[in-house]
Amino acid sequence: MITYLRHEQINKTKWDACIAASADNMVYALSWFLDVVAPGWQAFVEEQEGAYVTVMPLPGILKMGFPYLSQPYHTHQLGMFTTARSSERVREQLLELTVKRYKFIHSYRFNMSDTASLEQLQDKYELVARYTRYLKLNKPYKELYKNYTRDRKMNLKRAQRANLRMFGSDDIEPLIQHFKKHIEHKVVGGVSEYTYQMLRDLYRVMQERGVAQLIYTTAGGEVNAGCLFFKYNNVISYAFNSADSEGRAANGRTLVLDEIIRQHAGTDYTLDFESPMIEQIEHFYASFGAHRVKYFALRHNALPLYVRVIRNIRMKVYRTFFASGVAEEV
């Protein structure tokens, strides 16, 4: 039987044990990660003999008086986490319960282990196909490098000739300030200080657990690019980055990504580029030899008509004034 649990009812020891036993054991679904990015998160839980065997995190809030579900910032995927003991048709049951509970669902993203089941449910629910880019690092660096495109190899050589200094750091503040200065104005709706503070808090927790890696590039002493990675369960997630015009021209992020690939070549790690649905950026990630991987996002709108009209007007205003495109090195 599947039960809805409020935050205070969730046994986090049982929760994390279920995530660890699931097919898609990912850092985003662990209780301590969710506590930072979605304080007060709730869940659907299937329990058998005192153990959680299926879980689905629900970062839900009340908005305009209606229950609202969306993907938290800094969280690439969530979804349904099943174990060998999960009941049959549990994913379909969870979807049904989710759309009944939440009047509005904005792009709640499922993990890759959910994909095959969700393929069969597209006629019943508004499931939108999305893609990320994966690069398996289980080959020697020379073989991985061979799969870079001609342009990527050329830009890597340019980066190496640009006399960039690349260094690891424990200080995320330069990355945040760099993003504020060079990227924030391109983000529709802007970025709140709360979101930046969440990233600071998340980085601190990830550091304490030894699963964060932060790399900067500089030229002449000033940071021109920075990349943050999360490393958990043999997956390296390209979690956050920033580059100014100088960093893009010098291919700073190309240099950093190549270094990550070089460091972990010949291991069981997979680099997840967390590719957004922007053609230019996806092309950039593909140039490292990364292949496309499909997952789904759930949308649902059962809001009253007057609320839908207000929301549609707001979205049109955003789109009108949105300066599209966060440039990547090409």
From TrEMBL:
Q: Pfam families in the record, alphabetically?
A: Acetyltransf_6
Q: What InterPro entries does this protein's entry cite?
A: Acyl_CoA_acyltransferase, BioF2-like_GNAT_dom
Q: Which domain of life is it from?
A: Bacteria
TM ranges: none
UniProt signal peptide: none
Question: Residue ranges of the BioF2-like acetyltransferase domain?
Answer: 153-269
Recorded protein name is BioF2-like acetyltransferase domain-containing protein
What organism does this protein naturally occur in? Pontibacter flavimaris
